[in-house]
Write a structure and sequence with these properties.
75% helix; 0% strand; disordered C terminus; 704 residues; mainly alpha
Length: 704
């Protein structure tokens, strides 16, 4: 039987409640069971539409997706916060109001098309209800920041004509604004919610099934076996395990409260400071959003917005992602050296080969997913196949163990593999038949019913996990709709361009600050959409390749979850680390050095993101430019790590730390003679440090 992970511990529940307004699960009450089955229905609906079992117009799909989000979000939040009867009644009223909007979009689909731009009174009423429920859901799920920002944009669309030039617009009547925001595909139902209703939900389900099938244990055991014995092995395990988890989940905070339950206490046990342990986990977990092949929801939105294949986004992200995790790995290595933190005993570590032999089949769907994404298939198609393979593996595992001989098990798996492969020729029908047969077989084999229960729970958990992402996509559609209607992005974009004409670096700095400031109150998705809409075209005018400019915004949107004062990922790690979220945030910034360095280097040398263009590629050729910029980035990150931690072979003197920081900055700056000066300073520093420490012995120190 495929081993499925079971319930969480008390501490996990506390952390879930800290960062998850739905309370981390479904209550064991009649209302909780109803919501549980609604969540399952939501997931089945999304699977049916993704696999084209159910074919409905895109507008109806988006509206139904939002309707399900409303139906689940309000009652779940009310239940998690223990609202009284009146509070729960209001929550259900709002939920049904959201469902009514979806029903209206379905019933009036054709008439709404015919009277587009000329709404009647009923249309206006339902449009207002749609906006009100989406704003209320965003407030319930994410607090006031995002609804306030979106509300300001909505007010600008309604009253912006009264502002002074150049901020004003020509003016739009109430009906036109409601039509833009609540109907068509520009406002609530724009590209973000389309991506949520297709790619994002499917990949969240994919990750949910793999996690319950034991992927966390596989990644953790393999990481422990490979690096657990090394100096500072506990923290290196956290970096690798969180990076591997990022390949399937793409959710930073979710990674913190899954892998962090194991890695943070382990790091503290072996001597790492609590704040540093939390910072390592938060940094590594947030990196999951830039770790191919799945990455985060923003990657799918970026591909759809730019009109490029998803694998192009993956290709651009792969080197920076590896540098990001290499930087985190280097930081924990230096911290371990500074305090002489040893690894774990080999006797208590699992065998990585044994762990892989036991769970190798879990990697198959991920391998197929990577192949399909890089072969040019759409993320929706690749995700559907990946999810189908995962379900067949989980259901088939219990059946295979019930067979009497190894020969029959081999034959069974070969046959199941052929059925899965038939998807490419005859479509989803064969998969559905195989799944139905396996479900029936699991009713009669030992452990089969437990497997079915775990699959059912994965459907519900996937839908619940998708709520904050989907609701953020819906409410940020108001911002996109306002920008499309009024052209306000042009004003700020022109300001960035005017600065960039004198200094591209200042334009990049302004964009970075905007991302980080916005990220103090809103999630990565709306942060990216707002900033990319404003800064993306402006950076393009300044000669920055389009994909590189959007990746620049994406990176700093992620880093906003590590920067104080909000630092959501760090505060999610705080209860596990038993340390202040603010202290964890300051440590996370140090560990995430690559996140601040790589985007700037990529703008000046796009070869770092495997993109054409840039003076270096023109001068020396594309692949030599890729090799050179990667080596330069590695050196810059290495020097920055030494400067921040204050250790290399031994503790660094103050002047050595300053020299390391200066050399790293020169290597990033990409101005005339900065590379040559940076390399010379780095060589001088490394030579002097080696000479100064050649005869010194290691002094054992304990962490402060």
């Amino acid at each position: 039987m495929v081993h499925m992970t079971t319930g969480t511990e008390t501490q996990a529940a506390v952390v879930d409640e800290f960062h998850d307004p739905t309370g981390g699960g479904f209550a064991q009450t009649r209302e909780g069971r109803l919501l549980f089955w609604i969540a399952i229905a939501f997931s089945l609906f999304q699977i049916a539409t993704a696999a084209h079992i159910l074919s409905i117009p895109s507008q109806v799909l988006r509206a139904t997706h939002v309707g399900f989000l409303m139906l689940l979000a309000f009652p779940l939040v009310a239940s998690a916060r223990n609202r009284g009867a009146a509070g729960k009644a209001i929550a259900w009223a709002l939920a049904f109001a959201g469902v009514a909007v979806a029903a209206y979009q379905y019933i009036e689909y054709q008439p709404l098309i015919l009277r587009a731009g000329d709404l009647n009174t009923t249309d206006l009423v339902f449009g207002v209800i749609a906006l009100a429920t989406v704003f209320a859901a965003a407030y319930a799920m994410m607090g006031p920041a995002l609804p306030i920002i979106s509300g300001c944009f909505l007010l600008y669309a309604l009253f912006g004509q009264h502002l002074p030039s150049p901020l004003n617009h020509r003016g739009y009547d109430f009906s036109q604004v409601i039509d833009q925001m609540a109907y068509g595909t520009e406002g609530i139902y724009g590209i973000p919610i389309y991506v949520s209703a297709t790619y994002i939900f499917l990949f969240i389900l994919f990750g949910s099934f793999l996690e319950r099938a034991g992927m966390i244990k596989l990644f953790t055991d393999v990481s422990l076996g490979f690096v657990g014995h090394a100096r500072g092995g506990a923290a290196k395990v956290a970096v690798i395990a969180s990076g591997l988890m990022g390949t399937i989940s793409g959710s930073g905070v979710a990674n913190v409260v899954t892998t962090g339950q194991f890695t943070i206490p382990l790091m503290k046990r072996f001597g790492y400071r609590a704040a540093f342990a939390g910072g390592v986990e938060a940094t590594a977990s947030m990196g999951g959003q830039i770790m191919p092949p799945v990455m985060g929801a923003v990657a799918f939105i970026m591909a759809e917005t730019l009109g490029v294949e998803y694998y192009e986004v993956v290709k651009a992200a792969i080197i920076p992602a590896l540098l990001y995790f290499a930087s985190a790995f280097w930081m924990v290595h230096l911290e371990a050296g500074k305090y002489d933190l040893l690894g774990l005993s080999r006797a208590e570590l699992p065998s990585p080969l044994k762990a892989f032999r036991q769970g190798w089949y879990l990697v198959l769907p991920l391998g197929v997913l990577i192949y399909l994404l890089f072969s040019g298939y759409t993320p929706l198609y690749a995700g559907t196949i990946g999810l189908a393979m995962t379900v067949l593996l989980i259901l088939g595992g219990s059946v295979a163990l019930g067979l009497p001989s190894a020969v029959l098990r081999v034959i069974f798996w070969i046959g199941l593999g052929l059925v899965a492969a038939s998807f490419f020729k005859i479509g989803i029908g064969a998969i559905l038949v195989a799944a139905a047969v396996l479900i029936g077989a699991n009713l009669f084999v030992s452990g089969g019913r437990d497997t079915l229960v775990a699959c059912r729970d994965s459907l519900a958990e996937g839908a619940r996990t998708a709520l904050p992402v989907g609701i953020a996509c819906a409410v940020v559609g108001v911002i996109v709709g306002t920008m499309t209607l009024t052209g306000v992005a042009t004003t700020f974009g022109a300001f960035i361009v005017s600065i960039g004409q004198s200094s591209l670096f200042l334009s990049l700095l302004l964009t970075m600050v905007t991302c980080i400031v916005l990220g103090m109150g809103i999630p990565t998705i709306p942060n990216y959409i707002i900033t990319a809409s404003i800064a993306g075209p402006a950076l393009l005018q300044l000669g920055v390749p389009l994909l590189v400019g959007h990746m620049f915004v994406f990176y700093f949107g992620i880093l906003a979850d590590l920067t104080p004062p909000v630092a959501l990922a760090c505060f999610a790690a705080a209860p596990i680390a038993r340390e202040s979220g603010l202290k964890i945030s300051f440590e996370a910034i140090k560990v995430a050095a690559a996140g601040f360095v790589v985007p700037f280097m990529a703008v000046y040398t796009p070869a770092l993101m495997l993109q054409d263009g840039g003076a270096m590629a023109t001068a020396i050729g594309y692949w030599p430019a890729v090799t050179y910029i990667v080596l330069k980035a590695v050196l810059a990150i290495g020097l920055w790590g030494a400067a921040v931690i204050g250790f290399l072979r031994m503790r660094l003197a103050i002047w050595e730390r300053l020299a390391a920081a200066a050399a790293a900055f020169l290597l990033v700056a990409a101005l005339p003679m900065t590379d040559e000066t940076g390399f010379a300073l780095a060589l001088l520093l490394l030579g002097v440090h080696w000479y100064r420490t050649r005869n010194m012995t290691v002094v054992h120190r304990s962490p402060s």
